[in-house]
Specification:
single chain; alpha/beta; Rossmann fold; pyruvate-formate lyase- activating enzyme; OB fold (Dihydrolipoamide Acetyltransferase, E2P); five-stranded mixed β-barrel; four-stranded parallel sheet; 34% helix; globular
Length: 432
């Protein structure tokens, strides 16, 4: 979501005559878009902003902090970083070009803070960079979250759920397709909640599934992905979409958080281990080769060894292909921050490592299963390492590395797979 917001802002600034530079030393304006999911992310952002704004040898730069940390901390950031120029919250990013004009045109030092809510702010994140070779594009379909999980600060930084109209999203995706984009990733704090307060069901289909059908009809779009959903959002209509819409890729980001029913209740996650596993089985029945990734929090307050064993059990049953595993981090203002039985760091670390070990085994097993098969790979561009080595993704979102050439970019190429590691699969091109 932050990457998408940053891209939209960069496009807005470009349209106002600003130029993006890759070198920080050449820049006149530095805007740091921040995350508040974990304390470490906030500390890194503060350290970065402080290094820039407090450096006496730097040329005068305008430095701003945007996004979730700006929304969460507000005026406090000016106290910590007195040389900061701008603090802009999550619902006001589209006003930044105007605020920059105010700062640059003022003869006196001007500091701006805007962390207020704004109706329809979700509709402002629609601009994209002018890169004609964008193979895959992020599309924000909604903002905010109403779930209020006990560990999460997002509802306080992103606000309540607000969805964009279907027609506006379809228009944006069509424009991307016209520019050569082949894949879209639909984004929302909980994408499966899209439109549930503002768009009625039609033919027993939720607004989100209606949107998938509309995007599926767009010529030029070959692949559709989305994140992050909620386990409770996988009703029969969405499972049927995986089965019946070929452009919806066989990959699900399916956030478990914990396998313990006790911990799930404490987290305010309204599902159980068994309901989660039932949905997994329905998806596997609908799409046998489907792949799963997940989010896990280890060391949530009150998590016992038995609770963690339940998480490990689900981890092994599902055999997740990828997982974002987090050690629980206290976020001030959330219910979990004041819960008793906070877990020591060494126990969190041990549990974290155990799941990482399970993940490595599962990921390697999945990657080994692709050996001696031919995968349809959407080519993204040159790999970071290796001469004439290119990278792309197969339908289940596995990273594929292979010898290629620039003309492959943006095409779906059949790649015979000959080697695998934990993190990627490797092959040879069979096109000339």
């Amino acid at each position: 979501m932050n990457e998408r917001d940053s891209e939209a802002l960069a496009s807005m600034l470009h349209n106002q005559g600003y130029a993006i530079t890759e070198k920080e030393s050449e820049s006149e304006i530095i805007l740091i878009n921040t995350c508040s999911v974990r304390d470490m992310a906030e500390q890194r952002a503060i350290g970065k902003a402080g290094h820039i704004s407090n450096n006496p040898r730097r040329k005068k730069k305008i430095v701003g902090i945007l996004g979730c940390m700006a929304q969460n901390k507000g005026q406090e950031l000016f106290n910590v970083l007195p040389n900061l120029d701008m603090v802009i919250g999550t619902q006001k990013i589209h006003h930044i070009p105007h605020y920059l004009s105010q700062i640059t045109s003022s003869k006196n030092a001007t500091k701006i803070i805007d962390v207020e809510e704004e109706n329809a702010s979700q509709n402002a994140i629609r601009d994209h960079s002018l890169d004609k070779n964008k193979v895959s594009g992020f599309v924000s379909i909604m903002q905010g979250c109403n779930m209020h999980c006990a560990f999460c600060i997002v509802p306080y930084t992103r606000g309540q759920e607000r969805s964009r109209p279907i027609d506006d999203i379809v228009t944006e995706v069509q424009q991307l397709a016209d520019q050569g984009t082949k894949e879209v990733m639909l984004l929302g704090q909980i994408v499966t909640s899209y439109g549930r307060r503002s768009i009625p069901f039609e033919n027993k289909q939720s607004p989100f599934v209606q949107l998938l059908h509309k995007i599926h009809e767009i010529h030029g779009i070959e692949r559709i992905r989305f994140m992050s959903p909620h386990p409770c959002g996988f009703k029969d209509d969405l499972i049927d979409a995986y089965k019946n819409l070929p452009k919806v890729m066989p990959y699900v980001h399916f956030p478990l958080q914990s396998g313990s029913d006790k911990i799930l209740r404490a987290m305010n996650r309204p599902y159980t281990q068994q309901s989660f596993l039932r949905t997994v089985e329905k998806l596997k029945t609908a799409v046998p080769d489907i792949a799963f990734s997940t989010d896990i929090i280890v060391g949530f307050p009150g998590e016992t060894d038995e609770d963690f064993k339940e998480t490990s059990k689900v981890f092994e049953i599902v055999s997740f292909d990828m997982a974002y595993i987090f050690k629980y981090s206290i976020r001030s203002g959330t219910p979990a921050a004041i819960m008793p039985d906070q877990i020591p760091e060494d126990i969190k670390e041990s549990r974290n490592q155990h799941l990482l070990d399970l993940l490595s085994k599962a990921s390697l097993a999945r990657n080994n299963s692709y050996l001696n098969t031919t995968q349809q790979v959407l080519v993204e561009g040159p790999a970071k390492r290796g001469d004439n080595i290119y990278v792309g993704r197969n339908p289940t979102f596995r990273k594929v590395l292979f010898p290629g050439k620039p003309s492959f970019i943006g095409k779906i190429i059949p790649i015979p797979i000959s080697r695998s590691t934990v993190s990627a699969i490797y092959g040879q091109t069979i096109e000339g």
